[in-house]
């Protein structure tokens, strides 16, 4: 078993399933302790029990929910060394048919949710905070922040914002002496539930004849010749949480097989 995260205490948002749960499992496998945070309390508690982790309910778009959830997570873990801002949604629309409510929802979850996570992680990990020993934040963006792919304007805009927000957060943390590193991971398309939904949306919007054709197009745009896996992403997140990346700050780690280069 890897011990690269031994002793690390980490909160993972969107941790009830999918990529968030895989990231949490990688942290546990690396010797760390995890609290899963999610709005889906039933699924999240079941996942936490199976993983041997804690669970807190956090609506990432709600400031009070963050405040209460982070306090509970710090109490459960006995401190805090890291946050993975993984929670996010994707809703596909052609710009000509853009639904403002859909875009607001994507921006609220992906951008505001990430910003509030940074806020409350800073407050917990900075000197004088509930944990107070510094740490690391990893914000999950997307290859969609680096390329122009049709049908995902709101998602692409939100993930571009996450990448820039990360750099501002790293600058503020350094200038104010918080001792918290902040980095971004930009995953490529992963063949999980969200990835399958996205491929199906491309067919629904008439951009590709079938969902399989959409996936084939993505692979064709990827020099490494395949889709990303959840393990690929989780390993990158683990690196950015670990002591092996102590001088990596404000960086964007693309795990996309060079699709976004």
UniProtKB/TrEMBL annotation:
Protein name (Swiss-Prot/TrEMBL):
3-alpha-(Or 20-beta)-hydroxysteroid dehydrogenase
Q: Which InterPro entries match?
A: NAD(P)-bd_dom_sf, Sc_DH/Rdtase_CS, SDR_fam
Which taxonomic lineage is given here? Bacteria, Bacillati, Actinomycetota, Actinomycetes, Micrococcales
The UniProt GO MF terms for this protein read: androstan-3-alpha,17-beta-diol dehydrogenase (NAD+) activity
Q: Which SUPFAM superfamilies match?
A: NAD(P)-binding Rossmann-fold domains
Q: What is its EC number?
A: 1.1.1.53
Per the similarity annotation, which family is this?
Answer: Belongs to the short-chain dehydrogenases/reductases (SDR) family.
Q: List the keywords (alphabetical).
A: Oxidoreductase
User: What domain of life does the UniProt record list for this protein's source?
Assistant: Bacteria
Pfam name, any one: adh_short_C2
- UniProt entry tagged with the keyword Metal-binding: no
């Amino acid at each position: 078993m890897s011990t690269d995260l031994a002793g690390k205490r980490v909160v993972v948002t969107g941790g009830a399933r999918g990529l968030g749960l895989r990231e949490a499992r990688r942290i546990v496998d690396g010797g760390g302790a995890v609290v899963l945070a999610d709005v889906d309390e039933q699924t999240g508690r079941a996942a936490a029990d199976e993983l041997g982790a804690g669970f807190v309910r956090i609506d990432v778009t709600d400031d009070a929910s963050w405040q209460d959830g982070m306090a509970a997570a710090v109490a459960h873990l006995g401190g805090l060394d890291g946050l993975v801002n993984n929670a996010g949604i994707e809703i596909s629309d052609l710009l000509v048919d853009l639904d403002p409510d859909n875009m607001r929802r994507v921006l609220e979850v992906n951008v505001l949710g990430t910003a509030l996570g940074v806020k409350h992680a800073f407050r917990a990990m900075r000197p004088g905070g509930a944990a107070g020993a510094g740490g690391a934040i990893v914000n999950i963006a997307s290859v969609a922040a680096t390329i122009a792919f049709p049908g995902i304007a709101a998602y692409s805009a939100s993930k571009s914002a996450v990448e820039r927000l990360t750099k501002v957060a790293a600058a503020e943390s350094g200038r104010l002496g918080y001792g918290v590193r902040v980095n971004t991971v930009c995953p490529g398309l992963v063949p999980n539930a969200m990835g399958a939904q996205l491929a199906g949306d491309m067919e629904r919007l008439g951009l590709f004849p079938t969902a399989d054709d959409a996936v084939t197009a993505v692979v064709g745009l990827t020099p490494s010749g395949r889709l990303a896996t959840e393990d690929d992403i989780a390993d990158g997140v683990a690196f950015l949480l670990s002591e092996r990346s102590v001088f990596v700050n404000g960086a964007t780690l693309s795990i996309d097989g060079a699709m976004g280069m």
